Amino acid sequence: MPSPTPALARIAVVGAGPGGLTCARILQRHGLDVTVYDRDPDADCRNQGGSLDLHEDDGQIALREAGLLEEFFALARPESQEMRHLDPSGRLLGHHLPAEGETSAPEIDRGQLTGLLLRSLAPGTVQWGRALASVGGPADGPRTLTFTDGTAVEADLVIGADGAFSRVRETVSPAKPRHTGVGFLEAWFDDMEGTHPELSALVGKGNAHAADGERGLFAQRNSGGHMRVYLIRKTPVDWLSRHGLRPENTEGIRAHLLREYADWSPELLRMITDNDGPYVDRPILALPVPHTWEHSPTVALLGDAAHLMPPLGVGVNLAMLDACELALALTRSTTVDDAVRTYEKTMLPRSTETARMLDGAAESLLEEPTAEDLARFAHDRH
User: Fold this and answer.
1) pLDDT tens, per residue, the chain with 382 residues
2) Range of the domain at 227
3) How far apart are CA 146 and CA 165, in angstroms?
């Protein structure tokens, strides 16, 4: 089947995260029709996750193309660019305070960013409760998207923005995410100023990181007086069951953590003892490096579906840049096939280079910073 022109193509985006929604927004700004399918029953059914720092050389570029940069800055928190490095005793090793007017990487809650993008789309663009079961049909199209509710639709281009366990990726690649050997255990804190003033003073208005070579933590301020702490450890993916623990056993997990972090300062241990609610186990996964696939004229991947990497500040930014470049290629190309080829010529080398730099880098979050690290940190932040 000849590849259609983008203006006449049926474009389906799978996944209503920041990448998929950014792609849909830019396509609609240029007059192209697009439908987004997402497995969630609605936009508010679950917690959207923590805070995201959007960089001026990728995430912010995508928001500018989406016509949403000013609205982003109205919601973003420039003060969250503050960063503190602590040692396990709570001693301050390095500190970055953002300059007045600094906008290189302001933070925004993931839910706020998702809401901003959703509000920008034409009504009905996102179809909720459509969990993808499979993508069928010939490689040259049309493709058939079959959902778990038994319904199906046809598309001339399927854009996989459906994350780590992408069902769209299975159409072009056998690659599966692998465990990096590092895990995050997420803890939530509410009403920082009223209930947790000591932790608020310790972390500041942005982020704080501490590590001792074997374990670490990363504290991240969110909007509305909230904070998330990620306890970082080398663990097998099934560490909870190995220790006879269940996810809902908050007190048992807390006791286990206090043994692991026993020689850390009482101030930092409050990140383990004072959290509001249960812990959330988040094993850190990554796709093989490099991850490439044979070109398909009817399937494109972006974000974690294309290049899942450790969470070191690049994921959402690369996803949104991918989305921007794919959408613009579709607006500028004669056929859908040409647009996907143009996009992949840039995206694949970029993602491979970044993935190689970050391969195994999750363990760096456990390392105590050297004097050279701190000097480089201070230089990079100014």
Assistant:
1) 899 999 999 999 999 999 999 999 999 999 999 999 999 999 888 776 789 999 999 999 999 999 999 999 999 999 999 999 999 999 999 999 999 989 999 999 999 999 999 999 999 999 999 999 999 999 999 999 999 999 999 999 999 999 999 999 999 999 999 999 999 999 999 999 999 999 999 999 999 999 999 999 999 999 999 999 999 999 999 999 999 999 999 999 999 999 999 999 999 999 999 999 999 999 999 999 999 999 999 999 999 999 999 988 789 999 999 999 999 999 999 999 999 999 999 999 999 999 999 998 888 889 877 655 555 444 444 3
2) 180-285
3) 17
On whether both 200 and 163 belong to a single domain, the answer is no
DSSP letter string, 182-247? EEEEEEEE--HHHH-HHHHHHH-SSEEEEE-SSEEEEEEE-GGG-EEEEEEEE--TTHHHHTT--T
Instruction: Please check whether residue 90 lies inside any domain of the structure.
Output: no
Same domain flag for 217 and 312? no
| Same domain for 327 and 211 | no
Q: Where among 250, 285, 320 does a domain terminate?
A: 285
CATH number of 336's domain: 3.50.50.60
Same domain, 164 and 218: no
Sign of CA dihedral 13, 18, 19, 23: positive
